[in-house]
Amino acid sequence: MVVSIRTLAAGLLIASMVGCSNQVGLPAYEGAGLRYPVALTADQSGKFVYVVGANFDRAHRSGLVRVIDTVAGTWVDGAPVEIPTYAANVTLQSDALGAGKHRLFVPAREDDSISIIDVDTSGPGAPSLNCGQDKSGSGSCADAWRIGGPNKSDLDLGQDPMAVSVTPGHSGQDALVHVAAAVGGRISTFGVKTHKDGGVTATALPTLVPAGTANSSLSALVRSPIDGRMYVSDVRRGALFSYDLNAETSESETTWSIEQHAGIALPAAGSEMGRSMALSADAGRLFVAYRSPNALLIVDTAPDVSGEPANAHVDTIGLGGSPAQVVLAPTGPGGRELAYVSCFGTDDIWVVDPVARSVVSVIRLPHSPYGLAVANVPGRGWTLYTGLFSQHRVAVIDLDEGDKQRHEVSGFIQ
Q1: Long-range contacts, 376-381 (Cβ 8 Å, 24+)
Q2: pLDDT, tens only, 240-254
Q3: 251 CB-contact burial (10 Å; exposed 0-12 / middle 13-18 / buried 19+)
Q4: Would the pTM count as exceeding 0.85?
Q5: Is 335 helix (H, G, I), strand (E, B) or coil?
Q6: Is 282 helix (H, G, I), strand (E, B) or coil?
Q7: Under a CB-based contact definition with an 8 Å cutoff, are residues 212 and 234 in contact?
Q8: Residue 67 forms beta bridges with which residues?
Q9: Is the confidence at residue 287, as pLDDT, over 90?
């Protein structure tokens, strides 16, 4: 079995992977929060954080997506959206449908699908979540809001989709969706067009199994805004891979192709390597949460004298056990970025100053931090949110330099 998020919680036994989005006979989750918060993302306003619950123990019929009101410090009232069990991640496409109207993409390993959830924050009330769900029934997303899954066999994502990146559309597409699958090391791409009455039409574009990734487990995707290049991390390989999705348009048609670039060599001292990645604001540094060794790796992605990205590993900064997710926030001296890395194995978050190339703080937590999101909360400032995976709650951590509780847990949302 692939070593990945599925094996995070010690002692958690999963009997099978059933290809359906709702488990017949199991109850809906009726609590205020959610279980097994595995992934988080914040919108650009800083007012809302979107949290994915993975239902890892299959105690309920589905996973969930819920919203945190960051100003109030509570879950937003209203029904959550039900998603397949074993959700792996979440990607936010800001203003996809207009100002304040975003779109979430949530890959799930239960049925190899992506649920697409439209989020409207433009009104005066709480955000609304819409994926064509039957609000009187299961609450799961309608087929028109899904890519892949048992009812979309013509849209094959590969097995165990772990990461999604959404890039600008081309040739009549509203967006291009890139998907990294754990099993088989496959990249799938899709063009997405939005229906006027909601939902999307997805068209399969080229796939890629990067050379040198046989028996691999792809884990994360990041796009450079400098040249549009996509970077891919791999749990099984001590290397990063990169590629371009290219389109050649004539008067009658568009021809798509994927071009793979040379790999970027990384340390390889054990059985698990790259996890999540984050790109600096200037796109000149790529940060990789890594496990062999337990470290934050820094990769130089700035253009060299030839104009091509340098793509070289330049430093390894040791961290606690089992690094999982990395996010960046402008909370360092003079507003420069600091990197925050959740270490699942040692119950803490390590704070790294990439300029000083050193650890500047360690944030202790009750247990098992995994997913991370940062938000510049109105009236509060920069704040870090982390899902405590096996405690089924979200910890809130102040990040502003002037805050007396900086880099300490100030509360929990549960």
Answers
A1: 376/46, 377/46, 377/47, 377/70, 377/71, 378/45, 378/46, 378/47, 378/71, 379/71, 380/70, 380/71
A2: 999 999 999 888 889
A3: exposed
A4: yes
A5: helix
A6: coil
A7: no
A8: 50
A9: yes
